[in-house]
Amino acid sequence: MSTVSDMADQQVKPDVYKSSLKPVWCPGCGDYGVLNALCQAFARLKLKVEDTMIVSGIGCSSRLPGYLHSYGFNAVHGRALPIAIGAKLANHKLNVIAAGGDGDGFSIGIGHFPHACRRNVDITYIVMDNQVYGLTKGQLSPTSPDQAITSTSKYGSIETPIDPIRLALGCEAPFIARGFAGDIKHLVEVLVRAIKHRGFSFVQILSPCVTYVGKQQFIEIKQRLHYLDQDPEHDCRDIASAVKVINEQDVISVGIIRCHERPHYQKKLAKLNKAASRKKAKLEDLLDTFRP
Amino acid sequence: MQKRVLITGNEACGAGAIAAGCDCYFGYPITPQNELTAYMSRHMPEQGRVFVQAESEVSAINMVYGASAAGRRVMTSSSSPGISLKQEGISYLAGSELPAVIINVQRGGPGLGNIEPSQADYFQAVKGGGHGDYRMIVLAPSSVQEMYDFTRRAFYLADRYRMPVMVLSDGRLGQMMEPLRPGKGSKSSAAKLPPKDWALTGASGGRPKRVVKSFFPADGTLERHNLELEKKYNLIRRTQSRAGEYFCEDAEVVLAAYGTAARLCREAVRRARAKGLPLGLLRPVTLWPFPAARVKKLAARARAFLVVEMSSGQMVEDVRLAVEGRVPVAFYGRSGGGVPEIGEIYRRAHRLLREKAQGGSQDRGTVS
Fold first, then answer.
1. Are residues B131 and B34 in the same domain?
2. pLDDT tens digits for chain B (368 residues)?
3. Co-location of B233 and B258 in the same domain
4. CB-CB: which of B42, B45, B56 is closest to A108?
5. Domain region containing A270
6. Alpha carbons within 13 A on the beta-carbon side of B120
7. B34 and A139: CB-CB below 8 Å?
């Protein structure tokens, strides 16, 4: 993680990270909360804007890079993860954050998710989950609940929704967390921990869509919130605690669900390269392999 | 006579597909074709047919691949970036000789581009798009009525020739509303078509098994397969090219345009004719096979062509190939969501009419 070291004792203002672009999200969109929380988390970590890169896919939430004063990459639908991994591997010093929505990440882009988890490159992936396609005006999303009526499920959805936390746990993501766009203070804590984590960190952010789902979504989430940091029984290092979260029915747990340190990809790559370099051939000798 | 309905082009496409007996539709959200997916979501279940919002365009085209192999009439739709994702599947459909209908409601590119209307996928549609030696019939509607009619016809052509057929529309045609007179079941009826004796329908009862494949690894088998495809494509080239003509009989300058651009050109021709200027319009209806013979015939009589596109110049290459250098071929295009202006088409055509009187040189044209 690259930080503003010469400002070690000074406070960094979150506004430093905001671009001059005014978001075009609908009034009341959860993504405003995510943007604010992200800026506060960056300020807390004193990230250098010039060393930070936000990669997104396509969707309402994927507009995020435009509103941040860091390197931004509004990329290909569903491909934020491979692009983020490419950037991080090309420049280890970058703080790389991939961002997108539930459609981007768990519909078209889901194929990349298990591989990001197992490859364990040191990036953070935040998914703003509103359970609907907003940018294309209200279609069914892979996280839309059973029976959801949308513009492409006129008679109610007959497909079982994906639970991103369950998915991440199944894919052995080393860091799994959930936040709520309506509780910025808590979300900042979650994001700080996620960015600090060395390895692949995944944060599902419940970010309600007032336009295509309705205000009720926000109210219902708020009523059901359960804060894991206040739960003495929860231990994010213990997989049994995470299993408990994915099986919960009435409450929605937010906080660090799973945190399991294991050597990240760049660390292993450095080791591999070191071992390989001991057998290093001279450039001019490379072609000799092919001489008879 | 059936009643007319006011409907968007996207919805007309869906209505045409349902009228053609489309059994399965697989889509994925993308602007500016969402009305089509929403229409199918509402009306396919009413007909007891299959609607699925796939998890991606790649998934949708492969669901098409499977449904087609099972012998069903099947369609998918998308817009430019999504159509790019479908190219692998289209190549496999062509290689496996399976019928399918693909609707492209084009938007601006390259990359994510924008959601404005465009005609910049011409090359992708008619020159391949996917890998390998294959062709795809490409129909170019220029009204809401044609969105309906051509979608219906696409099903017929796909079944007749066992190949993917694309309806190449654009965001303007997809989103605008016009009166539509739904046709009666006739031309596109399956009755006249050969039986689908290749479809994977279950081999119980001892009939020989059927294999759908595009893989020919044994020495020489792929070349033989490709020669068979080429034979089919040549038959289509000879028999299926279509174009509309508007005041071409005595035209000295011929506009060539398809889809939305052709609508604008038609108005430019109308204005010119009102002033007694000999302007005409050739409107390719099939972009593949390209109506090259018609262009060639007109080139023998006209003094110049002006190709108008919502691209930086794609169909113009096929017009130039067909004209074979006989007369100058000028180009006027708007790219990235821009739409050609009727006044500008008129001015440029007028300039060519003046130039031809002085024996002007070949104008390569510019994008503006």
1. yes
2. 578 999 999 999 999 999 999 999 999 999 999 999 999 999 999 999 999 999 999 999 999 999 999 999 999 999 999 999 999 999 999 999 999 999 999 999 999 999 999 999 999 999 989 999 999 999 999 999 999 999 999 999 999 999 999 999 999 999 999 999 998 655 555 568 999 999 998 877 778 889 999 999 999 999 999 999 999 999 999 999 999 999 999 999 999 999 999 999 999 999 999 999 999 999 999 999 999 999 999 999 999 999 999 999 999 999 999 999 999 999 999 999 999 999 999 999 999 999 866 654 444 444 43
3. no
4. B56
5. 5-290
6. 27
7. yes
Residues B104 and B133 grouped into a single domain: yes
Residues of A in contact with B53 (CB under 8 A): 139-140, 152-153
* Residue that is written with structure tokens 């489309």 in the block: B22
| Residue of B25, B28, B43, B47 to mutate, interface with A, max A Cβ within 10 Å | B28
**Domain for residue B180, yes or no?**
yes
Co-location of B177 and B323 in the same domain: no
Residues of chain B neighbouring A107 (CB-CB closer than 8 A): 28, 55-56
Whether B9 and B149 share a structural domain: yes
Please tell me the distance in Å from A63's CA to the nearest CA on chain B.
Answer: 13
Inter-residue contact B279 to B247 (CB < 8 Å): yes
Tell me, yes or no, whether B234 and B315 share the same domain.
Answer: no
Inspect the interface and report whether the beta carbons of A139 and B57 lie closer than 8 Å.
Answer: no
Cis bond before residue A174 (omega within 30° of 0): no
Residues B255 and B342 both lie in one domain: yes
8 Å CB contact between B291 and B268: no
Cα B346 to its chain centre, rounded Å, is: 26
For chain B, what is the domain count?
2
Yes or no: say if B81 and B60 are a contact pair by the CB < 8 Å rule: no
Q: What's the domain range around B329? A: 243-357
pTM: 0.93
Q: At A7, list the tokens.
A: 């400002």
Interchain proximity B45–A154, CB inside 8 Å: yes
Q: Which residues contact B360 (CB under 8 A, 6 or more apart)?
A: B304, B328, B352
- Residue B321 shares a structural domain with residue B234: no
Q: In terms of residues, how long is chain B? A: 368
CA B187 to chain A, closest CA, distance in angstroms equals 30
Quote the CA–CA distance of A89 and A94 in Å, as a whole number. 9
* Closest chain A residue to the Cα of B46, Cα to Cα: A155
A78/B53 Cβ within 8 A: no
Contact B34 A137 (CB under 8 A): yes
B81, A77: Cβ pair inside 8 Å?
A: yes
- The partner residue sitting opposite A139, judged by closest CB among B29, B81, B112, is B29
Whether the bond between A145 and the residue before it is cis, its omega within 30 degrees of 0, is no
* ipTM of predicted complex: 0.91
Distance CA A78, CA A71 (A): 19
- Residue B100 belongs to a domain: yes
Number of domains forming the structure of chain A: 1
Residue A19 is part of a domain; what is its CATH number?
3.40.50.970
Tell whether A110 is within 8 A of chain B (Cβ).
yes
Contacts with B55 from chain A: Cβ below 8 Å: 107-108, 110, 142
